[in-house]
Amino acid sequence: YRQNIISFTFASLNYIHPEKNQYAYMLEGFDKEWIITNASNRVATYTNLDAGEYVFKVKGSNNDGVWNPVPTELKIIIAPPFWRMIWFKILCILFLVSVAYSFYRYRLGQVLLLQKIRNKIAHDLHDDIGSTLNSISVFSEVAKQDETKRMQSLEMIGDSSRKVIDAMSDIVWSINPENDSFENI
Asked: Could you give the angle at the alpha carbon of 133 between the alpha carbons of 129 and 139, nearest 5°?
C-alpha cells in the first residue's frame, strides 16, 4: 500500500515497421475502457491505487493494424494497510471490550470491598452495643439491690447510655449511602 506508483513497459515483436505498431492496455478494476497508444509511448503508469485486486491487460497490433485477439494479463494485488485489515479491527474491538470488562471488574471489586468494610463496621458496632446494653442491665440490677452503689451504678448507666447513643449514630452513618467512599470510611 505504500508503493503508490506502478509502471508497465511493453513491447510487440514485429520488426518490419516497429514504429507503426500500436498498443492497447487497461487496468481492470481501474480503467473503464482500453487505452490506445503508439510505439513511441509503450509505458502505462498508475499512481495512488486503492487496495484491492487488479488485472493489467495489454495487446498489440502489427504495422498492418492486425490486433492480437488474446491480451496478455498480469494480476496485481495491493494489500491494504494493517489498520484496515479485519484482524486489526477485531483486535481493537477485543481490546476495547477487555478494557471495559477490566474497568467493570475493578469497580465491582471496589463496591464489594466497601460493602465488606461496612459489614465489619456494622458487626463491630452491633457487638459493642450488645455488650453496652448488657452492662446497663447489670448496673441497673446492682442499683436496685445495693443502695450504696446506686449513684455509681447510675453514673455507669449514663456513661453506657451515651456510648450506645454514639454507636447508634455510627450505625446510622454507616448505612447512609452518601458515605460510600473509602475516604469517609
From this structure: 145
Q: Residue 65's CB: how many other CB atoms inside 10 A?
A: 9
Q: Is this prediction's pTM over 0.70?
A: no
Q: Do 168 and 100 form a contact (C-beta atoms < 8 A)? A: no
Residue 6's SS3 state is strand
Residue 71 grid cell: 491480451
Kindly give the confidence (pLDDT) of every residue in the chain, 185 residues in length, as a single tens digit, with 9 standing for 90 and above. Answer: 787 789 999 988 877 788 888 999 999 989 999 999 988 889 999 988 888 899 999 999 988 888 888 999 999 988 888 898 899 999 999 999 999 999 999 999 988 888 888 788 777 777 777 777 777 777 777 777 777 777 777 777 788 788 878 877 777 776 666 766 656 65
* Interatomic CA distance for residues 12 and 123, integer angstroms: 96
Q: How far apart are CA 59 and CA 65, in angstroms?
A: 12
Neighbours of 18 (CB within 10 A): 13
Left (φ > 0), alpha (ψ -120 to 50) or beta: where does 181 sit? beta
- Given CA atoms 46, 48, 50, 53 in this order, what sign does their dihedral have? positive
62 contacts 21 by C-beta, under 8 angstroms: yes
Q: How far apart are CA 23 and CA 38, in angstroms?
A: 6
The DSSP code sequence of 83-115 is: GGSHHHHHHHHHHHHHHHHHHHHHHHHHHHHHH
